[in-house]
Design goal:
Elements: H1 6-12, H2 15-19, H3 25-34, H4 49-55, H5 59-67, H6 81-88, H7 94-106, H8 110-113
Helix pairs in contact: 1-4, 3-5, 4-5, 4-6, 5-7, 6-7
Length: 114
């Protein structure tokens, strides 16, 4: 089973439960990254924090992980970060989803996502 890293825990928690609503999730992610948390590679059996944030439409937190070089490649389900992003794009944040799609495709892993 995948170890529960601080970023993975944050990606699966609610901001209300995690901070009592005092901080936003992007603030939590930024603090974890500034403290040395590693954005990490996608695990073969589970989703990565990046995929978790994308799947729930938290594009701000996902952008921080992309900037920190999180691995956007496939998980065991065959989905990659681009699949998760496009699946969540219908949540009404089309401008943010479009911007994040461009960033993903421009990343060093971008060509492998197509």
């Amino acid at each position: 089973q995948q170890p529960m890293t601080p970023l993975l825990y944050a990606s699966r928690a609610s901001v209300q439960g995690l901070t009592g609503g005092i901080h936003s999730m992007p603030e939590v992610v930024a603090a974890l990254l500034a403290s040395g948390a590693i954005a990490g590679k996608a695990k073969s059996k589970e989703h990565s924090p990046l995929q978790d944030f994308l799947a729930r439409g938290d594009f701000s937190s996902a952008a921080l992980l992309i900037d920190a070089k999180a691995d956007p490649r496939m998980d065991a389900s065959g989905s990659n970060a681009l699949h998760k992003l496009l699946g969540a794009a219908g949540l009404g944040q089309t401008e943010a989803a479009s911007s994040l799609t461009r960033r993903l495709l421009a990343s060093s892993e971008g060509p492998q996502l197509m």
